[in-house]
Amino acid sequence: MVKHQPLQVYERQLCLSCITGIYGCRWKRYQRSHDDTTKETGHRVAPFPVESGCSFSPNDRIVPSQHSLFTGLILCFDRVVAERTCLDPRCKKHTWELLWSIILLFTFCLLLVWFYFWWEAHNDYNEFNWFLYNRSGEWSDGTVPILATTAAGFTYIAFLMIGVTAALLTTVIGVISVNQTWGQEWDVIPISLQATGPFLHIGALAAVTALSWIVAGQVARSEKTMFQVVVVLLYLSVLLGLYVVPLYISSPCIMDPSTLKQRPDVIGHQGAPMLAPENTLWSFQRALQMNVTGLEADVAISVDGVPFLMHDRTLRRTTDVGKVFPDRHMEDASSFNWTDLRQLNAGQWFLKDDPFWTVHTLSWREKRLIANQSVCSLEQLLRLASYHNSTVVFRLRRPPPEHPCYDSWINDTLQAVQESGVPQSLVMWTPDEHRAQVRQLAPGLIQTSVEKRRLQRLHLDGISQLLLRYNQASTKEIGNFSQSNISITLYTINEPWLYSVLWCSGVSSVSSEASHILKKVPYPIWLMPALPICSTIWGPCMTTCGSDPGPPAVVQEEFNLLGHLLSTRPDEYCLMWVSVDIISFAVVIGIFIFQKYRTSGMRSYNPEQIMLSAAAVRRSSRDLNVMKEKLIFSDYVMCRGAQRRPSLSRQPLELGVKEVGNGVGSAEELYEDNGYDY
Predict the structure, then answer these.
(1) Could you tell me which residue ranges the GP-PDE domain spans (predicted)?
(2) Dist CA 508 CA 499 (whole Å)
């Protein structure tokens, strides 16, 4: 019995397969070979398919560490330029690749903005999850998969240049969805740039300066003047654009520290919902422990006229109504009477869903208190605030038309406020309905509006306080309202950077779900003080140059505008970005000079000529082998004939083989004839 031994034995490497597959899309065994001679259908296989940018030659070995986003774009443009001089018909396929490279760059920029948006929207993750809950009916943290897929797509695009189509389509769909359901959140980008703009400018400038090493290397090695000129012009355009970006950066934290106003008061939005269930008595007690100056709540009215605290229209999310009243879990919260509401548990959902990922930080005692929380009434909240001398602001939701208190909801709420015994000066009244009547019955209430109106209308209605979302008031508007003796409270402020920006803007108070975090911010995160440097230097220059009648009017106007922008920049920031620009420019010039010197001694070569020469060598060798086989076969036939005719000489045969060999030449000789040294 004959046993056949396998020619090759492969060891299963599951871990290596996963790593190479995820990182480089190399899922097959032959694609993981480290040998450059690995072949598939006669061509060398690239470690990963270059889906975007240029479709590199089959004989090109593409390594992720060598060809990332920026080098891939530069090489692609080099190929497009080389197409004009390339004689190989295969080079004519690179025309469309310039368009594909533009798509790649657009996808990268879109993903960068998308990633930055979700990074800065961390302040409003709970608001986004609540929007998802209203649409799906199930509470879950929808930001986790979005951040994971965004980070993965950004990594693949930036370093591997694969998955461009999937990343582009997914991001576009995400942008459209957010724009339809959460469009107001886009305002977080310009607001966040007020806090991160100066530092993003320095980071971007450092990245573009470091990129000059790649650009200078490609320009120095290239022999095409058009390619060199276009790449240098594009790079310098981006670099000069970054140099002047600080002229248009506006941040309230670039100011004189002596003009900084007092620290804004913090109001507990729904208590302390990160540490306890929202709108429960324990949540407000936890907020008071964090030294808040006020409490904010959402108020609904029961069917028997008792105001109670509830944010949602139904009781499904924050109570166990599905367990106690399974047939009524979809009904409006105001359709229950106070007796039924007192039977519901309003704390177990917090331990189960963990909406802010904070349950693991709670002690056993706190978890026990949370598990026993019930629905809180407005009267309980007012008595707690009165005891701690804390301000109370609540949003009153009108019951549905079939509700018995549909017409008397204002009177029922006002009666509860008066019966609680809380001083009227501690209550911020927000409903606009029957405001004149409320002012007559309770003149001590702080009249508050949740809509931004003109100053004349606010004074006419007796409104002295505004409760707005943080994107509804600019720094200039905040200053105008403050000068008119109208205080502004902005919600919902959970991040220290946003709190710092609003502090520098002059806001009097903020409403926050993270009072325990803002408690640790005794001063703005960063503040750029002023030093008499730039204005001292630029002021006399602007005056002197402005009085010179030499330049044309247009040039003089632009020059004066530039001088005004520079002179109005706080001087320490002006000195910082001017110094960074000078250092960056010096480094870029040095890198270009070094790369030119480094590549000046290298011998130039044409890769296309080498490929054509190698192809000629392969064809010649193949023809030589065919001729030898024919001669050997002829030799065999003639030798059989020589047995019959011994006088026949074999010398012409040997001479024929020698002549064929001498007529073709070796591969080394072909390379030497073309002037290449290997």
Answers:
(1) 264-522
(2) 11
498-514 per-position pLDDT tens digit: 999 999 999 999 999 99
Task: State the CATH number of the domain containing residue 301.
Answer: 3.20.20.190
Answer whether residue 223 shows pLDDT above 70: yes
Domain contains 21: no
Which tokens in the block code for residue 256?
Answer: 């004189």
Return the structure tokens found at 546. 């402005």
Query: Given this model, what pLDDT does residue 386 score?
Result: 95
Three-state DSSP class for residue 521:
coil
Contact 558, 239 (CB under 8 A): no
Give, as one character, the DSSP assignment of residue 305.
S
Domain that residue 588 falls in: 534-600
Label residue 595 exposed, middle or buried (CB < 10 Å: 0-12, 13-18, 19+).
buried
Same domain, residue pair 478 and 355 = yes
**How does residue 41 score in pLDDT terms, banded at 50, 70 and 90?**
very low
According to DSSP, the residues that pair with 294 across neighbouring strands are 267, 391
Cβ neighbourhood burial of 570 (10 Å; 0-12, 13-18, 19+): buried
Work out how many domains the chain is built from and give that number: 4
Which residues lie across from 295 on neighbouring strands? Answer: 268, 392
Confidence of residue 644 (pLDDT cuts 50, 70, 90): low
- Both 592 and 618 in one domain: the answer is no
Please name the residue ranges forming H helices in 137-187: 143-155, 164-181
Distance CA 379, CA 387 (A): 12
Whether 537 and 567 have beta carbons less than 8 Å apart is answered as: no
- Reduced to 3 states, what is the DSSP secondary structure of residue 253? coil
CA 511, CA 268: separation in Å to the nearest integer?
A: 6
The answer on 593 and 613 residing in a single domain is no
Reported confidence tier of residue 26, pLDDT bands at 50, 70, 90: low
Contact 309, 298 (CB under 8 A): yes
Q: Report whether pLDDT(636) > 70.
A: no
Q: Are residues 560 and 643 in the same domain?
A: no
Strand pairing report for 43-44 and 39-40: antiparallel
Q: What pLDDT is attached to residue 546? A: 41
Tens-digit pLDDT profile for residues 559-615: 344 444 444 455 667 788 889 999 999 999 999 999 888 887 654 455 555 555 555
> Hey, what are 447's tokens?
């009249």
